[in-house]
Protein 1
Amino acid sequence: MYLLLSLLVIAAIFSARVSSKFGMPMLIAFLGIGMIVGSDGLALIEFNNAELARRVGDLLLIFIIFDGGFQTKRAIFKSVKGPALTLATFGVIVTAAVLGGMIHLITKLDLLTSMMIGSILSSTDAAAVIMATRQTPIRRNLATTLDVESAANDPMAILLTTTFIAAIKGQDGSGWLPLTLGLIWSFVAGVGIGWVTCKIGRFLFDRLESENRGHYFVLGITVPLLAYGGAEAINANGIIAVFFGGYWFGNTDFTFKRGVGHFLDGVASFSNVALFLMLGVLANPSGFSGIWPQAVLISVLMILVARPVAVLLSTAFFKFDWRERSFLIWGGIKGAVPIVLATYPAANGLDPDGHVFSIVFFAVLMTCLLQGTTMGPMAKLLKLTVPLKKKAPYTVELYATKRCDTDLFEVHIDEGAVSIGKLIKDLQLPSNVLISSIVREDKIMAPRGDTMIELGDVLFLLSPVKSIEEVTAQLTSPDDDEDPVPA
C-alpha cells in the first residue's frame, strides 16, 4: 500500500507538468489518477468512507487555506480588498442563493437541500485560479482580485454549508434567528481567533532560539492547527480562523520566517495532491450515468447565471469595465473545497446514495474543463494580458534563526532601467547594500566592481529591509512601480 501511495503521488506531481503545459487545472490530473486506481477503475484502492474523507479533507484544508492566507501580501491585499472580499463574502452568498433557488425551482428538490447544494458549489478554487493567472500574465489588479477572492471565499462557503446542514437536521428546532446569530458569531469569533493565533505564533517563534531548524518547521505545523482548534473550542469557524491567522502571520516579522514560509508551501502542495487523489478514489464515475442531466443543468446555471449575477452585484460599486467583469465571471473555477463539502451531507446521514456528492463532483469537473482550460484564451480575447516577465532559474535566500532587519531581495533590470550600462562600482550604492549575485542569460555569476549591468539581469541584493525601496529606485527606471520581490 505504501509503495502504491508513493507511486500515485509521483505520478500526480509529474502529471501536473503535463496539465499545466496544456493550460489544464492540476486538480483534473490528480482527480483523474484517483479515479483510475479507485473502485470504478483498476480497483487498486477501495475507499468509500465519506466520514473519514470529510475528516481527512478538513485536516488537509487547514494547511491549504493557512498557506493561502500566509502567501497573501498586505500591500496586494489592500489594493483589491474591496472587490475581492465582497466577492468572497457577499458574492458567495449571492451565488449560493441564486443557484440554490434555481435548483429548487427546476429540479423540485426541497428548498433547504437545494440551498445546501448551492452553498457547496459557491466558492472558487485557489489552486486552479492562481495557476491560471500565473500561466497567462493578466493585469495585476484583475489577477490579484481573483487570487484573493479564491483564497478567501472558502470559509464563507463552509459556513453556509454547515449552516444549511444544521437547518436540515433540525428543521423543527430553533429556527432561523439562532442560525443567523450563530453564523455571525462563527465569522467574527473566527477572525478574532486568527488574530490571537498570529500573536501567539510570533511570540513562540521569537523565543524558541533553537539551533535545530527542524524545530521551527514543527512549530510551523502547530500554528494552523492551533488556530483551527482554538476556534472549534468556542464554536467559531475554524477555517475562517485559519485563513485570517495565516494572513496576519504571513505579514508579520518573526524568526526564521523565510524557511517556515517555504516549508508551509511544501506542506500545502502535498495536501493539495493528497486531497485530490483521495477525492478521486472516493468518486464513483459509474454513478454519473444517473445524475449527469441534473449535473449538467446545475453546472450551466452555475457558470452562466449564478456566477454572473454574483460578480455584477459584488462589483457594482467598484471600477471595473465590462471586459474585466466578464473575465471575473469566467474566473469562477470550482475545485477541492466543493468536493470536500460534498462529503458533509453523507457524513451527516443526508446523502446515503451519494447523489449530492456525484452531482457536485461532476459539476466541478465541468467547470474545470470549460473555464480552467480557457482562462488564458479568454484573457487574450478580452485584451487583458500583460507582457510575461521571465523568471530567474536560480534563487538566493537568506535563512536566519535570529531576528534581523536585513534580507535578500530580487530586482529585475527591465528596459529603461537607469543602471543599464553602468559598472557596479559606479552605482554609488549605500555601504550596507551588496549585490551578492547576478543571473544573466540563465547563468548565475559572482559580480565584481567592474561588472556592467545589462538589460534582463536579475540582481540579488543583500540589503536592510527599510532601504530596499530606495535602492530599487536607484537601480531601475523612475517609472517602474513594481514592488521588489523577496528572493
Protein 2
Amino acid sequence: MKKMQHSAATVRRLEDLPNVGAAVAADLRRIGIATPAALAGRDPFALYAELNAVTGIRHDPCMLDTFIAVTRFMAGDAARPWWAYTAERKARLAAADNKD
C-alpha cells in the first residue's frame, strides 16, 4: 500500500490521496472529480451511485469503501485504509435495506 498522506492540505492530485492510484483516480475523473478539493462535502454513497450510472456497471463495493475513506480524509479525518470502512458500509446499506 502506498504511504498515507498526513492531511488534506498536503494533497494536490487525486493520486496523492490515501487509497487512490491511477485506476481510482480515473474513475473519479469520470464522474467530474478532478481535484481532491472537489471531494470536500461530497456524499460517498452518491459518488458510488454516480460512478455505477456513468459506467453502466455495478462496481465492487470496495470502491464505495474507498470513496468513504477519501471523502472523510478531505473532511479532515486521519488517513485510514479503505477497508477500515467496510463494516460501516455494510451496516449502512443493511439499514437502508431494512427501511424498504
